[in-house]
Amino acid sequence: MSTASGSGFSRDYQAARARFLTAAERAGADIEHHELPGHTGPDGRPLFMDMAWIGPVDAQVVLLSLSGTHGAEGFCGSAAQSAWLDNPTDLPPGVAMMFVHAVNPFGFAHMVRCNEGNVDLNRNFVDFSRPLPPNPLYEELHARLPTREGLDEDLVAEWEAVYEAFWKEHGDWAASDATSRGQYSRPDGIQFGGQAPQWSAQVLTARVRARCAQARHIAYIDWHSLVRVGDGKLVFLCFNQTGDPLFTRVGSWWTPEAISRETVNKQWGEGITRSNRRPSRNGLVMWGLQHALAPQADLAGAVIEFCADNDQLHSGLRFRVRMRLQERWLIRTRAYDTPTGRDVVARLREAISPTRRGFEDKAMEIAMRTYTSALEGAGRWAAEGVPAAPGVLVHSSEFQ
Predict the structure, then answer these.
(1) What is the mean pLDDT of residues 180-208?
(2) Which of 60, 117, 187, 277 has the fewest CB atoms found within 10 Å of its own CB?
(3) Is a pLDDT exceeding 90 seen at residue 219?
(4) How far apart are CA 132 and CA 157, in angstroms?
């Protein structure tokens, strides 16, 4: 079985899970295991969303830390969770920590972003009792994309040409938004948000609600990767409403500048797309949990993206198209043990979480500082003794 590297990054899901559980057990955590029904990893072994609780069960403030919401992006978040559990610090009075490892165990194990139903879990937390958010521009793009399967460069070029034409017609932001905000009509398409709550969404919501029933405030970290703006940097995507007291509180943990729309728009434009600001979103996990916990508790925090050195080969459109086709080919063929499959897995792993020691060391250094700042903020929150104030709750909103 693959093992962790010298800096603590694991080589596959099973190794990451084993390391997390070992660290949680040594830290004295209360551990839960939730097996994904009906699916296994490429090795035929079962898949789990695991949870670990540290601290008093009646804590008024809980620091909730997620990894693997976007499947294979879990390598960085898993390493951060295990690194903290390896060297736990004293928690402030009235504060507990809840770690959720591999929110999307299928994607983590299979080296893809989506879950077992091709659903992006970070678009799945919408109100399915109401009409689902429309995305007419995505419908237009989906109709143009080639339908044949493959990994050949001719197909990559065909996809790239469709994207280029689409961007030219609709502009950088509108095109980026169409492909990123989530869509609910094409189950075989990209950024599919689903047509019902997924297993991961149901389990996560139920367990967070149960474990945090006594809490009044939730400090939230959902680890993701990878934005190309430099090793050892983070992008803080705070989805509390701008100007809301909860948004201000998050800024007190990680600085107002780090979570400002201006900072994030600049980072997003430099490291992800040509757009001068990040796209809007539908159905974020953070918003779903806010709804589930209100009015007894409020939730403040961010999706936090690990960053790597900017490499035009990796940040360019052709690379992103090739990666998308590799994910689609891998999940549809399940040809993991073929030479092509092993090559695709290795390429996706490197693109999602570089195995350079310099990247890994810097990522863990800043992740530990981020946990420390959040815990200090959680301690101040607990000491204030203020009631929950959830504020405005949304399932979909445009953050520009």
Answers:
(1) 97
(2) 187
(3) yes
(4) 33
CB 21 within 8 A of CB 32: no
Q: Which of 160, 130, 119, 99 has its CA nearest to residue 323?
A: 160
Tokens of 113: 């972003």
Spell out the domains of the chain, with CATH numbers in brackets: 13-126+194-397 (3.40.630)
Average pLDDT over residues 276-289: 93
Please answer whether residues 395 and 126 qualify as being in contact, where contact means their C-beta atoms are separated by less than 8 angstroms: yes
Rounded to an integer, the average pLDDT of 178-187 is 96
Place of tokens 């992008």: 235
Structure tokens at 173: 């932001």
Q: What is the pLDDT confidence band of residue 272, given thresholds at 50, 70 and 90?
A: confident
Is 362:232 a contact under the CB 8 Å cutoff? Answer: yes
DSSP state of 58: T
pTM of the model: 0.96
Q: Which candidate, 246, 248, 249, 251, places its Cα nearest to that of 236?
A: 251
Cα gap 184→134, rounded to integer Å:
7
Mean pLDDT value of segment 24-38: 98
d(CA 188, CA 43): 25
Average pLDDT, integer, range 208-227: 97
Q: With pLDDT > 70 as the criterion, what percentage of the chain qualifies? A: 96
Q: Provide the sign of the torsion angle of the four alpha carbons 159, 163, 164, 169, taken in this order.
A: positive
Question: What's the pLDDT tens digit per position in 38-90?
Answer: 999 999 999 999 999 999 999 999 999 999 999 999 999 999 999 999 999 99
Own/partner long-range contacts of 311-319 (Cβ < 8 Å, ≥24 apart): 311/228, 314/228, 314/351, 315/228, 315/271, 315/272, 317/160, 317/163, 317/164, 318/156, 318/160, 319/351
**DSSP β-ladder status, 281-282 and 396-397:** antiparallel
Interatomic CA distance for residues 104 and 124, integer angstroms = 12
The label of the residue with tokens 């104030």 reads: 389
CA 19, CA 34: separation in Å to the nearest integer? 17
Q: Say how far apart CA 27 and CA 37 lie, in whole Å.
A: 29
Q: How far is CA 279 from CA 172, 246, 395, in A?
A: 10, 22, 15
